[in-house]
Amino acid sequence: MSFKRLKKSFGLIFVILSAIVMLFLLFRNDDLPNLFKAVKNINSNYIAIALAYIFIFWILEALMIYSLIVKFTDHEKNLRTFWLAVKVTMIGQYYSNITPLATGGQPVQLYVLKDDNISLSNGTAILISKFLLFQIGVTVYSLLMAIYKIKLLANYHNGASIFIVAGLTLNM
C-alpha cells in the first residue's frame, strides 16, 4: 500500500471514528428531545438577524483584506482581487473555527495568499495589518462603551470595572 493511499485511509477512518464519537455523545442521554423542543421555540427573526450580522462581518473582513491586498501588492482593484479576498476570508473563518483557540486561520490564509503569487512578506503584512485594525476597532468600541455605560459599571458591577480597565490597558 502506498503512503498516499495509507494517509487517505487513515483520514477516512479518523472522520468515521469522530462521527461515531459525536453521535454517541449526542445520544447517550435523554437530552436530545429537549434539544428539539428548544430549537422549536427559537424565534426565527433572531436567527435571521444573527445570520445577517455574520454575513456583514464576512463582507467587511473581505473588504478589509481586499483593500490591504491592493495596498501591499501589485494586484489591481477588480472583481478577481475581491473574490481572492472573499476566499481568504472564508478559508480563514473555516480553519479558525475548527482549530483549538482559533489558531489555524492565519497560516492557511497566508498559504492561500502565497498560492495567488503574493509573497510571504506581503501576505504577512496583510494579515498583521488586518489583525491590528481589528484590535484597534475592538479596543475603541470597548472604550467608548465603557465610557458611555460608566454609571452602569460603577453601580452594578464593582468587580468588573477592574477587569475592564485591565483589559483596555492590555489592548492598548
Short description:
The protein has 172 residues and is mostly helical. Helices cover 84% and strands 0% of the residues.
What does this structure look like?
With 172 residues, the chain is mostly helical. The protein has one domain. 84% of the residues lie in helices and 0% in strands. The chain contains eight helices and no strands. The protein has helices spanning 3-27, 31-40, 44-72, 79-98, 105-115, 120-148, 150-156, 158-171. The longest helix is centred in the middle third of the chain and has 29 residues, at 44-72.
* Alpha-carbon Rg, integer: 22 Å
SSE order: HHHHHHHH
Structural category is mainly alpha
Helical segment tally? Answer: 8
Q: What is the total tally of β strands?
A: 0
Q: How many separate structural domains?
A: 1
**Major sheet description:** none
Helices and strands in order, then pairings?
Blueprint: H1 3-27, H2 31-40, H3 44-72, H4 79-98, H5 105-115, H6 120-148, H7 150-156, H8 158-171
Helix pairs in contact: 3-4, 3-6, 4-5, 5-6
Key terms:
single chain, about 170 residues, 8 helices
